[in-house]
Amino acid sequence: MIFGTDPATFPVLWLGLAGSLVAGLGTGVGALPIFWRKRFGDLAQALMLATAAGVMLGATVFSLTLPALGIMLGRQPDELLAVLAVGLALAAGAMAIWVIHAIVPHEHFVKGPEGGVSASLGRYWLFILAITLH
After folding, report:
1. What's the burial of 114, exposed, middle or buried (CB within 10 Å: 0-12/13-18/19+)?
2. Fewer CB atoms inside 10 Å of the end CB: C or N, the chain?
3. What is the C-alpha to C-alpha distance for residues 104 and 114, in angstroms, rounded to an integer?
4. How does pLDDT run across 87-116, given as a tens digit for each residue?
């Protein structure tokens, strides 16, 4: 064994590659059901979207918001000011996404074109912008 058994001795690059590999494999495994069924019912779609939304909400809270609050509490001993700073940062981020969503032309499979004028962009570019935006 090159690095030993203690994960703290692993180089950060290898840990990052391993984490990315696990995330990519998890995404691939999660996409496998599409090979068995081409269409899903309304209830199945609602459950899958709700699960995805819950995972993203959990990632937002546990991987972004709580660490940001911990950093702010380390810098600002007043808890109220730390919470307000993180809350304002979240609100600013949400407003930025809202504005970008309104300006950047993109296309949804169900809702169709949205955003700014998209006459000069092909459907593939609109879809790429939609994925990037979301």
Report:
1. middle
2. N
3. 8
4. 999 999 889 888 887 777 766 666 766 666
Q: What are 114's strand-pairing partners?
A: 106
Report the amino acid identity of residue 133.
Answer: L
Report pTM: 0.57
Q: Which residues pair with 113 in a beta bridge?
A: 107
Alpha helices in 32-107 (DSSP H): 42-59, 66-75, 79-103
Closest by Cα among 132, 129, 95 to 116: 129
Q: What is the pLDDT of residue 27?
A: 81
Q: At what angle do helices 79-103 and 123-133 cross, to 10 degrees?
A: 170
Query: 85-88: long-range contacts (C-beta < 8 A, 24 or more apart)?
Result: none
